Amino acid sequence: MVKKTWLKGIGLFLSLAMLAGCSGQSKPTAGAGQDSNEIVIGANFELSGDVATYGTSSLNAAMIAFDEINAKGGINGKKIRVVKYDNKSDKTESMNVATRLITQDKVSAIIGPVTSGNTLGVVPVVNSKKVPVLTPTATNPDVTIDPNTKKVNEYVFRACFLDSFQGRAAAEFGLKKGKKAVVLVSQADEYSKGLAKFFKEGFTAGGGTIVSEEAFNKDDNDYRAILTKVKSEEPDVIYLPAYYEVVAKIVKQARELGIKAAFVGGDGWDSPKLVEVAGKDVLNNCFFTNHYTPEDPDPAVQSFVKAYKEKYGQTPDALAALAYDGARLLADAIQRAGSTDPEKIKEALAATKDFPAITGKFTLNENHDPVKDIVIIELKDGKQVVSEKIKSK
Amino acid sequence: MDVFIQQLINGLSLGSIYALIALGYTMVYGIIRLINFAHGDVYMVGAYVGFWATTQGWGFLPALVLSMVVSAILGVVIERLAYRRLRNSPKIAVLITAIGVSFLLENGGVLALGAKIRTFPNVFPEVQYHFFNGAVVITNRQLVIMVVTTLLMLLLQYVVHKTKTGKAMRAVSHDTQAAMLMGINVDNTISATFAIGSALAAAAGVLVGIYYNAINPYMGIMPGLKAFVAAVVGGIGVIPGAFVGGISLGVIEALVSGYGQSLYRDAVAFALLIIILIVKPSGLFGSNVREKV
């Protein structure tokens, strides 16, 4: 521990020295003034550590997008060059990577990180260095709006909807299934708690009743006791915002106990493991909100799915789809800006309107959050089917 | 009423699992006074062996037996390599070694098998029996868990009380020195205890795999702790105590989450442990005339 702090001290000293070096130059001309035939974009992703699979699939998808653009001749005749670093799924490291990308590699814009926590680490860096960052998947509201000043972080953008919208959309959809809902929350999980809060608000505002709210421990195996209680309350809808592993166990046991109510969940459900563990029949009458589905017949979606499968041998998940959109949005903004100047790219990003994303056409609002549709996916005999799309308000 | 019966059934099947694991804890404690913290992880290994066997197309019973045999060997090996040479060391050294073995099995499992969950194949199709117009549901898997647990318990009682090995185990547990002087091979008897205890844990692992469908390398931690509580509640070192302790812990947990707050379930389980330790430190069955293994 002592050693680590010591190392961090040296790191801090070095980065300060680096900063001093930069300000000594005539003017930091990030992006501009480099080789005029290329555009440098930084990639700051979680390639190792806790959420390495998220970062890897996001980077993979972003690279597909950049390669496609380069194959078509680049942007305004300039090729894109991506400088990628691993932030080790760590907030401090994400900050260091962002600093390095801006001061050393002089990138015009940054894509990533994936998670809200790591993105929050990057925010102060890009705000002070004035280079735009686009996170494909950070859903926490504080990423784009400073919680203290309530002001928009001028240089931070995102390509995904917020948990508040996801929870309310689930409530709107749930009301179509009935007026009595039970909410099951995974204790000690901010994601689950956040979604549950917005679901409850939306559901009661729409005239429904929350019969009860139960908390469970995601490391358990047996949920029959809680579910027996839920059964006796006879809900029409059960909202279960959690990740696929525990969802599989809970839904399976609920069906065994004879609970026939509709289950509604969030984007944490999106995994092939869900069907594998729970079984196909069990998951009928189950729905979840998501960013996109690989089953979407839209040709743009299908060509991305095909390209991703060919290159990486897997079906792209929602994170990959969002990163693909994020990368294309950055390129689009650079084209509209007609320049590699970070300031102009930032302005172009803020003015994004009706961007044709594969996760749904969107416009960035005044908070730099996309206004886009949410997909409600129904699991029919183990297959993901688009049940409906809910418009953002 | 029907809700109460359903909760009772939930509790009994959960409690059977705790009981099977608790038996191993209590036997090992009875014979060498060691809380074998690696026991929960032997249960995990048992589940993985059962997983392997069933994915190879083995039936339920052969898979159960194979998993019990493999885990019994594992239990003996752990005892030989890790605990035997510490037999005359301070108690705390063995205890810490047990924790080390536990970490080794968990993280070795992650390394060898990956941290992701595995899905147990459907060994036998599920049949549901409905009572009170569907208000109470009992599945054949729950019945299998309860029946297998009861049979193993009876078998264990038979081994401990009617066989030569059982007699040796009781003797070593009562007084190791005297048993040795009487010509009982203490090392072999201790090995036999580890083998039997580990085999029971493996049976629990396979049953859990079939019941819940999902297994992972960390699955042994919480059930291991709960089974430990069950063993202490019943009176550690006493075989029927572990059985009763396991079943009652399962039922209490089900009733607490069913009628109280699900969040308080674990708190109640461990509060129970503290209360028992204060009121009756020897546990429910830990009377003066000890019949230990």
From TrEMBL, chain A:
Keyword Signal part of the UniProt annotation: yes
Glycoprotein in keyword set: no
Boundaries of every Leucine-binding protein domain copy: 38-382
Cleaved signal peptide residues: 1-20
Alphabetical UniProt keywords: Amino-acid transport, Signal, Transport
InterPro entries referenced in this protein's UniProt entry, alphabetically: BCAA_transport, Leu-bd, Leu_Ile_Val-bd, Peripla_BP_I
PROSITE patterns: PROKAR_LIPOPROTEIN
Family listed: Belongs to the leucine-binding protein family.
Xref: PANTHER family: LEUCINE-SPECIFIC-BINDING PROTEIN, PERIPLASMIC BINDING PROTEIN OF ABC TRANSPORTER FOR NATURAL AMINO ACIDS
Protein name stated in the entry: ABC transporter substrate-binding protein
Originating organism: Heliobacterium chlorum
TrEMBL record, chain B:
Protein name: Branched-chain amino acid ABC transporter permease
Keyword set, alphabetical order: Amino-acid transport, Cell inner membrane, Cell membrane, Membrane, Transmembrane, Transmembrane helix, Transport
Taxonomic classification: Bacteria, Bacillati, Bacillota, Clostridia, Eubacteriales
Membrane topology: Multi-pass membrane protein
UniProt subcellular location: Cell membrane
Family of the protein in this entry: Belongs to the binding-protein-dependent transport system permease family. LivHM subfamily.
Pfam families on file: BPD_transp_2
GO terms (BP aspect): D-alanine transmembrane transport; L-alanine transport; L-isoleucine import across plasma membrane
GO MF terms, alphabetically ordered: L-isoleucine transmembrane transporter activity; L-leucine transmembrane transporter activity; L-phenylalanine transmembrane transporter activity; L-valine transmembrane transporter activity
Protein source organism: Heliobacterium mobile (Heliobacillus mobilis)
InterPro entries noted in UniProt: ABC_transp_permease (IPR001851), BCAA_transport_permease (IPR052157)
Listed transmembrane segments: 12-38, 58-81, 93-115, 135-160, 190-215, 227-255, 267-286
Tree of life domain: Bacteria
GO cellular component, one term: plasma membrane
